[in-house]
Amino acid sequence: MDLGLRNRFAAWMLEALEDPRAESRIAGLVAFARHADASGFASGLCGEDEERLAVAEGFERGCGGIRLRPDLLADLPAIRWRAERFAEALRAARAACEAPPHAAPRLGWTLCAAAALFDARLFFEVHELLEPPWKDAEGPFRTFLQGLIQVAVGFHHHAAGNLRGAIGLLVEGSAKLRPFAPEAHGIEVGGLLRAIDAFVARLRGADPPRDLEPPRLVFRARGS
Fold first, then answer.
1. Are residues 205 and 122 in the same domain?
2. Does the pLDDT value for residue 70 go beyond 70?
3. Residue 148's CB: how many other CB atoms inside 10 A?
4. What pTM was estimated for this model as a whole?
5. What is the DSSP letter of 61?
6. Can you give the residue range of the structural domain that contains 6?
7. 173 near 199, Cβ under 8 Å?
8. Tens digit of pLDDT for each residue in 29-54?
9. What spatial distance separates the first Cα and last Cα of the chain, rounded to whole Å?
10. Are residues 120 and 63 located together in one domain of the fold?
11. Looking at the structure, do residues 108 and 90 belong to the same domain, yes or no?
């Protein structure tokens, strides 16, 4: 997927998690993904959905609708997939997480939102969400966040078909998380580690399955 498009959509998603008013851009993207034909043209969108995309780089107005730029047409399947996962993650986060605080402490909300993204297989977005607090963290908590980030990026590599990169980061990330088992900061670390170990073992097999499903990231605590 075009990296600029991916990064832009990820920013939209994180903004929507933080502020329900920003969900409108995700709604517009979902509407486009569901209505677009094979040429990347979507007609019949409501005026607000069309306007949200019309001003976004990567889209352009067509005759009575919105079109994905021709040079980005190959990314249409990825856009469809990502839009549906965005909607899934937002529903999960709204149901499971407290309202996002606008001042510290934010730990509980951030990890709950990360779990919603992780379970929707939005591993790049998990990285984007956790990287800022990781940069500010110190001591064991910094190691904990780095472990989660590396695990998420490992599964991102797996989804992209980079098995060597996936194995390397899953092993590195799980090693950082092991001292925190069985539970830390509301995350069920022990179960995650067992699932990662089994996942890596299958990737290292002679014929790794292509449809191997990543585990869930279980967050149980509320608040921080």
1. yes
2. yes
3. 29
4. 0.93
5. E
6. 1-96
7. no
8. 999 999 999 999 999 888 888 888 88
9. 35
10. no
11. no
